[in-house]
Amino acid sequence: MAVLSDWSPEQAAALYRVRDWSAGYFDLSAEGLVTVTLDFPEGRVSVPLMDMVRGLGERGLQMPVLLRVENLLDAQIARLNESFRTAMESLGYRGAYRGVFPIKVNQQRQVIEEIAAFGARYGHGLEAGSKAELIVALAMLRPGQGMVVCNGYKDEEFADLGLLARKIGYNCVFVIESPAELPIILSRSDALGVRPSIGVRVKLSSRVGGLWNETSGDRSIFGLTTNQLVELVDKLRERGMLDCLELLHYHLGSQIPNIRDIRRGVLEACRYYVDLVNEGAAMGYLDLGGGLAVDYEGASANTPHSRNYSLDEYTVDVVEAIMGVLDPAGIAHPVLVTESGRAVVAYASVLLFNALDVTSFEPSGEPMSIGEDEHELLHGLAEVQTAVCSRGVQECYNDAIYYLDEIRDLFRRGQIGMRSEALAEDIFLRIMHRIARQLEAGAPMPPELSQLPEKIADIYYGNFSVFQSLPDAWAIDQLFPIMPIHRHREAPTRRAIIADITCDSDGKIDRFIGPQQASRTLPVHVLEEGEEYYLGVFLVGAYQETLGDLHNLMGDTNVVSVRINADGSFDFVKEMNGDSIADVLTYVEYDPGRLQVRFRDTAEQAVRSGRITPAERAQILDQFAASLRGYTYFEK
Ligand code: PLP
């Protein structure tokens, strides 16, 4: 692997593309440390993540830790609201913007509390997709503070709670997702004597690109068809309730990478809006759902993990598109609602973990000597090695594979021994590394060899679970920015994939953000004996925390919220211990107390049969109890 000299944090910033994906919130310091960077009225402040890691260690909080920077939640809410305000002001829009945060995107209390508290200044509300989420929304917001938009299937209980909430002043809107919901809402509104505020979700025919495009188009599972919408309007008119129909909603899918798709959706929705007003519905709110994408790759491109627009472009395009349809029709500008989730919370959370170990695919350092009596195939393989520079890389690669296969056959048939096989594997690795060096030096890359760097990359074992902490990386190949959070004054001379500690072949990350395009390996530093090596997975605040599962019974990680102050200091403001082993066992129906009793019986029998002493029994039982209390991850 080439050792890069004269390395600087600036080069590291370019290598990991920090400034492309971080939206200005993360950077590298001259000391080679990843920092969280925030603007205060007093000036810009940068705090190294390593300072926070040190603080966590001093408080006895072990890795992995999900670190939440509360200021980043605030900053994103402010950016979103300010961007809409500026767009509306500059274009002469005569309505307001009211965001609602969809609770499903991060249901954690600490997150919702912060969004509700900071969002109050902008009237930022909450979107609830279930009864449980409605309960959260009503408890977190005060009446009049922000809208409560109720999506999802609603039964009588859901309807009753939302209607009664209106009585005490909440602006709680029921979005009708299917025709069957309307009779429930109307009958409960009659029974309770509360007039509902009704919204309607339409299925737009506009389709979007990206990973979540099933949410859009005629076959999307939620929303009313145009026919069903007409029927709903007629029913409300019959009952003299068209004044209750106040909101039009659609959601085209999350992480929409192409601004043109967003614009097309807005234009189509506005056509419905105009006709609903003309039908006599009160209207007043246009809710565009979610979809505002996060540029995980920093590519500013129309690709699934990126987006080809900025936040300001999004807000201007949306406002402009609405005005473009409503103004010629002479329709008043509605309150514009968006349900941006990902864009609000992604930046605030970083998964921090330490590397535990490394497996390298390096040939041994020993000079190679092949005895005269070794099989001729081994000699053939050795000749390939000397030929790498003179023959083409593809030819040498083919020959090396051929010889290694044949040699392994010999081993399987018992014609050569383990030591000869080991020697052959070592020569093979030397050949692969030589070929890789030639490719790095600019030899043309044959398609078959494109995966070679990955095949000889190190495996760094990280103290975390992909399934628990980064479920989208496993399930849908979501790219998250990953990088070491320190040592950036040194060149990262190794290339690695990251394996977690679940012992599952899927428990790995082997797609990373590369300088130009996604890369199969991550540049990392050599692990130093006795020194911790910390990495961060960034932009993980959306969806990851609640989708995670208990694969291998790895539980929730420790979660710590920090707040950075204008003088560059920071406070640990909230802390949640990760699951203990007893916790995760309880989730899968074990009773830790009964497990202890069963194990005590086994230990007692061992005493009776003379295998252990009573003192050893006490020691084993203490260990069992301590393990139950322990963290599910690797502890130091
Ligand atoms: N609104 C609705 C109805 C959704 O289903 C979702 C999630 O897909 C969102 C809002 C949030 O979308 P995003 O996180 O892309 O902003």
Stated plainly, the CATH topology of the largest domain is called TIM Barrel
Give the second-level CATH assignment, the architecture of the largest domain. Answer: Alpha-Beta Barrel
Q: Determine the mean pLDDT.
A: 94
Percentage beta strand: 15-25%
Stretches where pLDDT is under 50 for at least 5 consecutive residues are none
User: Cα-atom Rg, whole angstroms?
Assistant: 30 Å
> Pairing-aware structural class of the strands and helices?
alpha/beta
In CATH terms, the superfamily of the largest domain is Alanine racemase
Number of domains: 4
Q: Mind describing the biggest β-sheet? A: 10 strands, mixed
Number of strands: 21
Shape: globular
Distance N terminus to C terminus?
A: 31 Å
Q: CATH top level of the largest domain?
A: Alpha Beta
* Number of helical stretches of at least 4 residues: 22
Oligomer: single chain
* Percent helix range: 40-55%
Bound molecules: pyridoxal-5'-phosphate
Short description:
By secondary structure, this protein is an alpha/beta fold. It contains 22 helices and 21 strands. It folds into four domains: 211 residues, Lyase, Ornithine Decarboxylase, Chain A, domain 1 (Beta Barrel), CATH 2.40.37; 248 residues, TIM Barrel, CATH 3.20.20.10; 76 residues, Up-down Bundle (Methane Monooxygenase Hydroxylase, Chain G, domain 1), CATH 1.20.58; 48 residues.
